[in-house]
Amino acid sequence: MSLPESLERAASEMADLADQIRPANGDPSRLLEELGTTEAGQLLAWILSEQPADAAELLEAWGEDDAGVAILLALPDDGIAKPGRKLLRKARHRLRSQGIAAAGGESVATVKRSVVSANDRWQAAHLSSPDFRGARMGYLVDSHPAGGARLFEIRFDEGRGILDFKIYSAGRSKVRGFLRSLTEGAGQRLFEVDRDALRALVWRASQAQPDDRPLPTSFVEWRTRLFSDELEKVSTPGGLAREALGAGELAPSLETLVQEVKNGSLGPWPPTTSLVSEWMDRGREAVEGLEGEARATRIESWIDEITVSLQEATDDVLISRHLDELAWVRWQAGLEGEAQRLLTVSSALSTDSGVSKAFTRARVESLFAPYLADLRVIEQSALDPEDGDD
Fold first, then answer.
1. Of 202, 223, 59, which is closest to residue 137 (Cα–Cα)?
2. Pairing mode, strands 161-170 and 190-192
């Protein structure tokens, strides 16, 4: 069973508490608001004994709330089945490791908690890695005034602005479960981030919103509450990485990152699709009828030409920001050396034309990799003799 199902069963078997359990809709935080201290203790004891598989979720949620902590620490073990007692003791041990404990004989009302958020407010912030264009997902969580949590899902790109902005309301346990599914294990897709740093990053992206694509309506409605102009002075995640790690040696850093771009594991931050398709057409025209060394030479010349064109169309400051933000991701993943290489090349992009050119050429080779492979091959049919020739 899930926790909401177990709570529904509890409401059926504890008829005197049903009118307080059901309005919470399975949300542990709402349960604390609906139930009194004594009633919450009765419900917890029942869940621990009857549905221990779902009790862990309730214990975790109540362990982050003042009232819930008091109940966990004051609940007698007597009458609770062994599996439930083990879970309760484990939860208390976790609280003690945080410096939270009840002295012998203390009443529930006088239990002290050392880690408390004002008015039981729950906030969280998570950020994804950028995709090949630089787009990212950001998640801000706030306690909902009516109970549960409000989740802000933001898709943004520093070069293209706010791409999407959605708001969801759900129970805290559901929101925690969603975030946990994306932040744990080998398939980790989100990283916990400083809340103000994420807000600053989203604010900066909003300043790049193109005139022909208005900001999402929901973003506009929440902008003054979440993304004020004061965030201009706040460090983004990439800025935090730079402050913590600094830069390293340029030559080996550039060599490594150029190879990463070529093999497709970094960037390549393509410009408009029209530019790409236009240059592909030019490439076909450039090598038409050419073979051997002449064809190879013309292809290299075409790469040089498009490198110049892409460099002119590229905002090196924007690419530097992409590198800084990716450095933060690798820093969070424990890859400080890789993060420092990104910061080193980022620092040089806007000031060293040689670095900018080498990096841009690598982006060209990545953007056009499959196309270049085809361009370098002469169709076999073009080499075959005409039918009937010896």
1. 202
2. unpaired
- Evaluate whether 113 touches 91 at the Cβ level (below 8 Å): no
Please spell the DSSP secondary structure of 16-40, one letter per residue: GGHHHHGGGTT-HHHHHHHS-HHHH
Sole residue written with tokens 């076909």: 284
At 20-60, the pLDDT tens digits run 898 888 888 788 878 888 898 999 999 999 988 888 888 88
* Residues in contact with 363: Cβ distance below 8 Å, sequence separation at least 6, in sequence order: 261, 267, 268, 269, 310
In tens, the pLDDT along 269-314 reads: 987 767 788 888 888 888 888 888 898 899 999 999 999 999 998 9
Structure tokens at 106: 């203390």
Q: What is the largest CA-CA distance in the chain?
A: 106
| 378 closest CA partner among 262, 284, 303, 281 | 284
247 Cβ partners below 8 Å, 6+ apart? 340, 343, 344, 347
- How many CB atoms are located within 10 Å of the residue 213 CB? 11
Instruction: State how beta strands 190-192 and 123-128 pair.
Output: antiparallel
Strands (E), the chain: 123-128, 136-143, 149-157, 161-170, 190-192
Sequential DSSP letters for 123-184: EEEEEEPP-TTS-EEEEEEEE-TTSSEEEEEEEEETTTEEEEEEEEEE-HHHHHHHHHHHHS
CA torsion, ordered 240, 246, 251, 254, to nearest 10 deg: 0
Cis amide prior to 237 (ω within 30 degrees): no
316-340 in b/e burial notation, b at 16+ Cβ within 10 A? bebbbbbbbbbbbbbbbeeeeebbb
Nearest C-alpha neighbor of 333 from the set 131, 133, 185? 185
Q: What is the DSSP letter of 263?
A: T
User: Model pTM?
Assistant: 0.68
Percentage of the chain modeled with pLDDT above 70: 89
Q: What is the pLDDT of residues 119-141, one digit of tens each?
A: 456 889 999 999 988 999 999 99
